[in-house]
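TEACHING EXERCISE
Course module: macromolecular assemblies
Task: Read the component lines below, then compare them to the predicted structure of the full complex.
Student: A.B.
Group: 4
Components provided:
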Amino acid sequence: MALLEIDGLSKSFGGVTAIADLRFEVPKGQVYSVIGPNGAGKTTLFNMLSGIYRPDEGSIRFQEREITGLQPHKVAAMGLSRTFQNLQMFFNMSVLDNVMVGCHLRTRSGLFRAALRLPGIVREEREANRLAREELTFCDLERFVDLEAGALPYGVLKRLEIARALAVGPQLLLMDEPAAGLNDTETAEMQRLIRRICERGITVLLVEHDMGLVMRVSDRILVLDYGSRLAEGTPSEIQNDRRVIEAYLGGEVQYAV
Amino acid sequence: MADQILQFLLTGITVGATYALVALGFAIIYNASDVVNFAQGEFVMIGAMSAVALSAGDNGLPMPVALLLAVLITVCVGVLLQRFAIAPARGASVVTTIIITIGASIFLRGVALLVWGKDIFALPAFSGEQPIHIGQATLLPQNLWVMGGTGVMVLGVHWFFSHTAVGKAVLACSCNRTAAHLMGINVGLMMLIAYGLSAFLGAMAGVLVAPITFTSYDAGVMLGLKGFSAAILGGMGNPMGAVAGGLLLGLIESLSAGLISSGYKDAIGFVILLLVLFFRPSGLFGRASVERV
Amino acid sequence: MKRLRGLFLLALLVVVLPILFPDNYYVTVVAVSAALHAILAVGLNLLMGYAGLISLGHAAFFGVGAYTSAIITTRFDLNPWLAMAAGILLTGCIAFIMARPILRLKGHYLAMATLGLGMIVQIVLVQAEGLTGGPDGLGGIPPLSLFGWEVDSDLRWYMVMSTVMLLVVWLALNLIDSRSGRALRALHGSEVAAEMMGIDTTATKTGVFVIAAISASLAGSLFAHQQAFISPDSFSFFFSIELVTMVVLGGMASTFGAVFGAFVLTFLPELLVVFEDYEVMIFGAILMLMMIFLPQGLFVGLQGLLRRLLQQRAPARLPAPAEEDKHGAA
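Instructor-supplied answer key:
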């Protein structure tokens, strides 16, 4: 059974169509990539899946439940987490606190209990602290624990965003261009990290421009063009798909083949 | 009843014209530098107070000269404010700039208190006190000066931004500072012009309205708040929207003072402002902006 | 107890001051208003400093609290503690209702909306003469008493006010260092990301707005009983601005910064009195200069300076802590 089912999804902004009647399914436990040229609607798709934008039409089903139009924090509570293309770090907080925010859904205490520091709080804090440190270690960030997020270099911040998203405890992780701006070494690390996330049983939905990374890391790939589905399949199917090659390389293909 | 309403409308437009000039000043500075200038009301006060001081007494200057000098003094204050308080704090947060301009406003008020004391002053009307009758409603010649003066200045500002190279350069800075700088525009100078122009509008509002409302060292506070309200009401991003917001606020206040309660007229103005913010945060005449994630 | 070291220091100071300087005007009178201002500033700092939501109308909640206490105790002769609770309840309800529409706004629009709310409340206080006594104010408010212990001298007020201040600081420190506190700070850092972490940002904003409001109401009730007479002047736009200035002056997102800011801004005018006519001008100039040259706040700025000095002396083993609020957008 598919973890995520998208059917007839459409969204336009002031007459410009971003996503048009899109349909696809993400199987559980895989790395599923969405590729396409700039402006193909990838980030719009992510924003709809995570509840930031409301779709004009269509349905999004996650774990066999309708999540279309739910607020982002409700979507997150159902087990969907994400990272952002342009970093959305909490720069006013420490690295550890950033990830501890990710544990928000795994802890319960409210404003008043916290203000009075009732007994349960200390235990809960310790638990959140432990979870956060685990995810930091998983993403190879343990040596930055006590630093302020604002003091970290870009490549580290990219991984910190992932650690924070993992702390939510997601079934599905949406990653929006995790390798953008990384050098080759960092990209290789990122590739390993994505596979390790998948091995933990977390399904990964990936948007990425680095084709090498996409081809190496993905189980299946969806190609978007002008907001609709151009092709879908395994990496080798996609690499040999005429329509994809045409879209990416233009008319020259006619002569090349 | 109809005559009464006509009277309220006339008063409302006069008051609204003053608000409109202050709001226009707000909008110009906001668009040029992303700063909400809480010292805007002090420009009005300084304009009016220096005009009074310069023209008063036996060896006071002739009125037109005094007015000209008063406006000039205020423009200098505006330019100095930009140069020494706003420019050094570039890139500061919204709260920080708000407190800087509030500090500036308290400072200017303190100076005014020192120079002119706590007394209330009036400026003689420009062309007599003979009321003009329109039906049952009356109008002072000074009201016409306020309306006419405001009209001329609003048109002037509109022309400045749409037809002069300097005006367009100021607008370019507001759109994108870096790009404007790369295009060879002297951004610093444009900021000075924006603040100077804004102070000029404030001072003009001050001298035009002083014969009707009187003036004192703390007259700028409420006007500043009203101007800010008007600018938000009309839409900060749009200078002409701010003007419309000013006129509207003046009319709302005058009508609610006349028809409902004079004590609550300011409250009614603020309630309407809140409603506009709740249901149309970009202002009545502003354009909504889309936030990108 | 490293967490609460600052609180113990503050408590020590509170105890030592009246012993060292008994009957000193600055201790028994000025410090009492400073403690009152600190209660207000700490509450406002939760909203402004941590959650990043500016309010230019905080005096309104202070006023509603004060007037509820005053009206209930003078007109209906009810127990002051009951009146205080009623004030907190009323303010909490007002804040809860206003929070949703107001906190959807951002930046200057939020500033304007809160300013408008403050103005409306002040105008009502002036105009509703039948209830509030209008511009002339309301007098004859009874003092507080605690199990027969009347709070009727300056020193006793010093004890009560500083105890409440310490309590409020303790609550604020606990809150910030918790799940909800992190949610608040996350909201300031990035609202979308906070939502994606499962934080109900609307509810969180509403919660902090209500907490800031009820702490202001509590301060208002204390103020009313301490002064025995209140008038709308104490709850004007200027007081809201003063509160914001205390928070920013101390350094946003620092509870002790807010306390520090409250003390500086309460003592400053007392000291400037010697300049007589120049007072207003000098006050404005100090405000401007401080914000231009120390935008991160006096307390946080000094803290950073101290830290750097200490580090120069003993080479740090840990990597240098990042400048506070480097990315701190407002």
